[in-house]
């Protein structure tokens, strides 16, 4: 049987030290300030994506708009869940989630889009998902073993972003060629 790296008595003593840090213990291996900053950038990304999908849901028009708009609404709800998960993690790490609307788009990895054409909406949403996939993949790799909990949060979000990208690609493939121009 493998031994713990730290004996039980020492673990107990350390747990009582700096109790105000909550889950951040001596074993935490990342730069908590930078992790909070990265999480806040991802939070801004998720909020912008939620807003973009909501706008697309309400403004989608055309013969195929109803089915596509339903996907937009579902994706908006899932992006909002991602934002909530990130805000919760930021608080757990002792930070403050940044919901400031005046700097939201400058902190976001993805851009807001106000396209009026259904195909353009789908393409812009797909671009935004691809940006999220690329940046969240980098974040997961950067976190490594330094913060396994935040890493898992990003891995779960990343999995759903990949599903969104696949859904959007499928929507584009199913549209008649006349609408794809």
From TrEMBL:
Q: Domain of life here?
A: Bacteria
Cite the binding residues for Fe cation.
46, 82, 129, 161, 164
List the cofactors. heme b
Q: Which InterPro entries match?
A: Dps-like, Ferritin-like, Ferritin-like_diiron, Ferritin-like_SF, Ferritin_DPS_dom
One Gene Ontology term of the biological-process aspect is: intracellular iron ion homeostasis
Keyword match Aminoacyl-tRNA synthetase: no
Alphabetical list of Pfam families matching this protein: Ferritin
List each copy of the Ferritin-like diiron domain by range.
29-179
Tell me, what is one Gene Ontology molecular-function annotation carried by this entry? heme binding
Q: What is this protein called?
A: Bacterioferritin
Cellular component per GO, a single term: cytosol
What are the record keywords, sorted?
Answer: Iron, Iron storage, Metal-binding
Coiled-coil blocks:
none
């Amino acid at each position: 049987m493998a031994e713990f790296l730290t004996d039980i008595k020492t673990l107990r003593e350390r747990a009582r030290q700096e109790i105000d840090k909550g889950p951040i213990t001596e074993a935490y291996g990342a730069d908590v300030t930078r992790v909070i900053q990265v999480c806040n950038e991802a939070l801004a990304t998720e909020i912008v994506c939620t807003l973009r999908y909501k706008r697309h849901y309400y403004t989608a028009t055309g013969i195929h708009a109803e089915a596509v708009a339903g996907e937009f609404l579902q994706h908006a709800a899932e992006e909002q869940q991602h934002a909530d998960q990130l805000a919760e993690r930021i608080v757990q790490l002792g930070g403050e989630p940044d919901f400031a609307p005046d700097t939201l788009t400058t902190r976001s990895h993805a851009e807001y889009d106000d396209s009026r054409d259904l195909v353009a909406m789908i393409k812009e949403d797909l671009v935004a998902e691809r940006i999220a996939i690329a940046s969240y993949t980098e974040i997961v790799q950067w976190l490594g073993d330094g913060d396994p909990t935040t890493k898992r949060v990003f891995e779960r979000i990343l999995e759903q972003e990949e599903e969104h990208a696949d859904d959007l690609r499928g929507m584009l493939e199913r549209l008649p060629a006349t609408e794809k121009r």
